Every structure is written in structure tokens, then in C-alpha cells.
């Protein structure tokens, strides 16, 4: 498979196995919005994410709520990035370099993709449609993978 085909397959598997419920889709929409906000905030204060002596010195104790929130955000940022790197390298060994890189690309682009495909989830919930029929996905999925 090409990189793009494998990415499409991983997205399809993710959607059909875990995201066919509209409540789950709505929660992914909220999560994706939070991630995109976080992605944007990283660019507003990059020097403090990378050059802060507190971070490299294992973060000195916060003296106020803002400091606590900032320290917590930095810790989670680096834990999250470390987890993505660890899983990517793990997939290199299990499935090959391309599969690992595809998974990493999927993880980093999921917030954009989730907003695109789940933006109507609240509308469907209000209509009482709790499950996605996934009809709109079948045009993009090869016949041998439609189960």
C-alpha cells in the first residue's frame, strides 16, 4: 500500500470499529477542538515550552494557579510527545517503518480530520440518530474492506 492508502485504511478501521456512535463522535469533535486550540497555543509561547529552565530542571513548584496549569500543560505535552515517539518506534519493529509513520501522521492529523467528519454529530444527536450508517464512507473504501 502507498502511504496515503494505508492512512485511509487506518482512518477507516478507526471509524468503523470505534466511532460509529454519534455520542462518541461528538466527544471526538470536542477533543479535536481542544487539541487544535493547544496546537495553536504552542506557537504563541514557544520559547517558554523549549527554553524554560524550570522544565529542564524538572519544573520548580508553582506558586499560583497559572503556574500550576502551565507546569501541568508542559508535562502533559512532553509525556504525550514521548508516547507518540515510543509507539511509532514500536510500530517500526512490529509492522515496518511506513506503518509507524502512517500511524504518527494519523495521530497528529486526527483533530483536523475529526472536525471535518464529525462536525454534524450534534445535529444527528438532536435528531435522535445515535448511530452512523457510514454510507458516506463506502465511496472511499475498497470493496474488499467493506464489512
| Share of helix, binned | over 70%
Strand segment tally? 0
Structural class: mainly alpha
Q: Describe the sheet with the most strands.
A: none
Report on the structure:
The structure is a single chain. With 147 residues, the protein is mainly alpha-helical. The protein has one domain (3-127). It has seven helices and no strands. The chain has helices spanning 3-18, 22-44, 46-51, 53-56, 65-95, 97-118, 121-127. The radius of gyration is 19 Å and the shape is flat.
Features:
147 residues; mainly alpha; 7 helices; 74% helix
Brief rundown of the structure:
74% of the residues lie in helices and 0% in strands. The protein has helices at residues 3-18, 22-44, 46-51, 53-56, 65-95, 97-118, 121-127.
Element layout with pairings:
Elements: H1 3-18, H2 22-44, H3 46-51, H4 53-56, H5 65-95, H6 97-118, H7 121-127
Helix pairs in contact: 1-6, 2-6, 2-7, 5-6
